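This section describes the prediction task in plain terms. A model, or a person checking by hand, is given the sequence of a single protein chain and must write out its three-dimensional structure as a string of tokens. No templates, partner chains or ligands are provided. The sample shown here is typical of the held-out split.
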Amino acid sequence: MKHYLELSDGTCIEAYLKSELPEHITPDTFEPDTTGEFLQMGTKPKRFKRNTTCTTEAELALFLKYAHRLIEKGDEILGDSRMFLAPLPIRNGLAYLGTSGMRNPTLGVYIEWWRNNEAAWADDKSGTKQPLYYIAGSPLSGCNKCAYIGSDGEGHTTSVPHFSRVWSTFAKLNTHYTEAKQLFDAYTLKEVIERLL
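The expected answer:
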């Protein structure tokens, strides 16, 4: 029996079940942070530190180095569920809500987000639009410390206007795939790069 991953625009692409399926699907819904890391009563929320929020610096460096070329290969990524679901080593988050709605982002989520949302891009120092990849800030005040991928393949910290459009569009797209990320097989980022580039 074939299985399919339905993209946010309604397109369906063939997907492949993992060899070991979870007993239940873990939701990625918005709820107050209970870890104390992002919600602290009576004190200012801790600022996110971009360099400590990724599983490995090497994976992040790989993603940043090839991101612009992966954007160019977007059609191929959106046409292959295993490429689409390739996990990325990025831990976005919001003050008070923690990582709710932003857990386990994938390459395909970013490709779709960059393609369909002006809010997913930030101006670099020369005024050129560059893709955002790191989202951190307050959904209440709008204060934020995000980062974009420069044409040099490096991450650059920035504060974006209209922060609510940045995090809400990303979270809506990311949560669309919560179940698929847990059910379907995925390539690693390195495997995607080796196949495409």
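For orientation: Residues 57-72 form the longest helix (16 residues).
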